[in-house]
Write a structure and sequence with these properties.
The chain is mostly helical. It has 12 helices and no strands. The chain has 2 domains: 134 residues, no CATH class; 130 residues.
Amino acid sequence: MLAGFAGMDAVARTRAAWQAALAPLIGAAAALGALTAGSTAVAVATMAVVAAGAGYSFAVSLRFSIAGLMVALSLLISQGLFLTPADAVPAFLFATAGGIVQVAFTLAIWAWERPQPEPVWDWRGGVADLRSNLTLRSHALRHALRFGAAMATGVATYRLLGMKEHGFWVPLTILFVLRPEEDETMHRLVLRAVGTALGLIVATALGEALVGDEVVVALVLAVAVGFAYGLLTVQYALFTTAITVYAVLLADTLGEGALHAAGQRAYATAVGIAIAAAAFLVWSNPGRGEGAAEDTALARPEPAR
């Protein structure tokens, strides 16, 4: 599922290229999660480094940042499932294969619609953006360090609280709401809370109403994923609603009661929101006009990067 978010704003040919490039990275992150899940200290340190890299990807473009976030998301899910080193190779293969399936679907769309081509990569511009933001006055670098620390805190928190079932939903919340700018982060915190509440209501009602009807549940899961893909860059609260319905119903399908899964989702989301909000209280951005470097992804996002 994760590779499908790459290049969502692009035409099919470019989107397929991004998904193909991202698939093995998602697989590698899943394998890394399996290798580091057994130790809390190692898991926290690994997440801090990988998440910081994902956060710094905002220096290039929105498209590049989504790719970075999906790699971090693969790591946190793998760690959160408490996989073992023996699972590393299967995790890599399954995660990569899932990305390749996304590529196949995208290529089928490209063959059908044949849109006008667009540039796929802009290596020179991307490298220039990364170099220009290597200063603590840059919102992008500050976000990278803040994001890495917040994600690591999220991992440490759910492990110290003994949240073994769905603890990874804590850093998952942080990943989706924490952004380089404080105003945008606070806005997304509100949308996350509203969307999660609505999604929990819908998912719980559906879970209770569709007990034993696996075919209908499978269709609802497919629809929820479709809405999640379609709404991510359109309306974040609605995306959160869709992905919450998917997560809770999936947990219910795997044997966990919908009510219990909904309670776990609400608790983890609340903890994640608190950590994300605290991140800017601990270390805010410089005042307007104080930053020397240009925060490229916010000022002039270029889809080709």
